[in-house]
Amino acid sequence: MDSCYTSSLMPLSEGLARLTDAITAVTEIETVPLQAADGRIISAPIICPVNVPPADNSAMDGYALRAVDAPEAATQLQLIGRSMAGVPYHGTVNQGECVRIMTGAVIPQGATAVVMQEQVVTNDESITFKRPVQIAQNIRRAGEDLKQGQLLFEQGHRLRPADLGLLASIGIGEVALYRKPRVALISNGDELIEPGRSLKAGQIYESNRYALAALVRRLPIIVEEFGIIPDQPEALREAMTKAGRFDAVISSGGVSVGDADYIKIILDELGEIDFWKLAIKPGKPFAFGSLGNAHYFGLPGNPVSAMVTCHQLAIPALRRLTGEHYVAPTPLVATTTGLLRKRPGRLDFQRGRYQNGPDGKLLVSATGAQGSGVMSSFCEANCYIVLEQERGSVEQGEQVEILPFDALMV
Ligand SMILES: Nc1nc2c(c(=O)[nH]1)N[C@H]1C(S)=C(S)[C@@H](COP(=O)(O)OP(=O)(O)OC[C@H]3O[C@@H](n4cnc5c(N)ncnc54)[C@H](O)[C@@H]3O)O[C@H]1N2
Ligand code: MOO
């Protein structure tokens, strides 16, 4: 029986723990302009060098005044000048006076409030404030957003677009980052042929490399595609020896027990296998080890198995390799809209679609056939449905954990 056979398989949690132990981040650092830093990992904490905003400034287009001068409605003050964003007013606002001010312009000395222009009546140099004025209204204080000396980003932070805007806003134009690790990508199988050619009997199109390369390139990683390597030990030895000079190798295919499954055998010969086979579905024959300089991720050849093991095992490890302080995404909980078939023995990553239900709670259903070669149901999906190792089928209306693809950078 499947469940008996798989009872000796290593649980995913143990495999992940071993991966985590084995991976140390790259250490080399390079300085890069902000424009090229999106998605990259910072190699040292970033401390704020200035206050943001640098000076008290106006949140509205209107008039700056001393709040004490307009405690009641219908107060009239005299207009004495203007403060524009980039061209401040250099005088002082004294009793009975006000200054025209624009959003973002520096608050002139003496002024303690800004009134938006919709709340005044203007008559030449005389401004009537329709309502009583509160001290500090519409003033953005210096340092209100960020204070000089404050920690902005920890080492290992992955830079996102808003982070780049923030760094630019404090005058930082380049950042120290970990170098991008280099990953070799190998596809193995005599049956594989590149898309665009015509198929002969027994051939299929190579597809794993296209999906895996795109997935890994979402990380700050340089992917070198080795192409299709046939099921010949010599050809594989040569490719794997070369790949062992990279920081990591990802191969797909040839890790099971068939007569032409050489990857695991050659990894054993040229490098070291840390573990092989996990209690997951799909992806059971996943192999992890080392080869020369490289961490080795041997993904199974079935296209869905390759994607699932890349997501669940290779990507978390590679994110650590990039120097990222990686925290696994938190699963959400959803209610199933139909039966999910499962046998006990392996943690199952079914492909599903989740959506909001009528009561605001999440609903999820599987996206059709769940075979490990069925990529169409992967493409219809927007999440994994994660079913615990020892459970059986899930009835309609039960709660399950889901991992939205967005959170996995799919
Ligand atoms: N006797 C047993 N047989 C199998 C077992 C087992 O435990 N005992 N495990 C099965 C499981 S589970 C998986 S998963 C597969 C994995 O096998 P391999 O990693 O050796 O992969 P291959 O045999 O090379 O290929 C499997 C399948 O995927 C297709 N493939 C391979 N590479 C690509 C590619 N780059 N693009 C598209 N498709 C690819 C290949 O043609 C095969 O159809 O083993 C089971 N067998
Ligand atoms: O574990 Mo395999 O990935 O089911 O096809």
From TrEMBL:
Its cofactor is Mg(2+). The keyword Electron transport does not apply. One of its GO terms (cellular component) is cytosol. Keywords: Magnesium, Metal-binding, Molybdenum, Molybdenum cofactor biosynthesis, Transferase. It catalyses: adenylyl-molybdopterin + molybdate = Mo-molybdopterin + AMP + H(+). Its EC number is 2.10.1.1. Residues 184-320 form the MoaB/Mog domain. Pathway: Cofactor biosynthesis; molybdopterin biosynthesis. One of its GO terms (molecular function) is molybdopterin molybdotransferase activity. Pfam families: MoCF_biosynth, MoeA_C, MoeA_N. Signal peptide: none annotated. Transmembrane segments: none annotated. It comes from the Bacteria. InterPro entries: MoaB/Mog-like_dom_sf, MoaB/Mog_dom, MoCF_biosynth_CS, MoeA-like, MoeA_C_domain_IV, MoeA_C_domain_IV_sf, MoeA_linker/N, MoeA_linker/N_sf. GO terms for biological process: Mo-molybdopterin cofactor biosynthetic process. It is an enzyme of class 2 (transferase). Belongs to the MoeA family. Catalyzes the insertion of molybdate into adenylated molybdopterin with the concomitant release of AMP. This is Molybdopterin molybdenumtransferase. It comes from Echinimonas agarilytica.
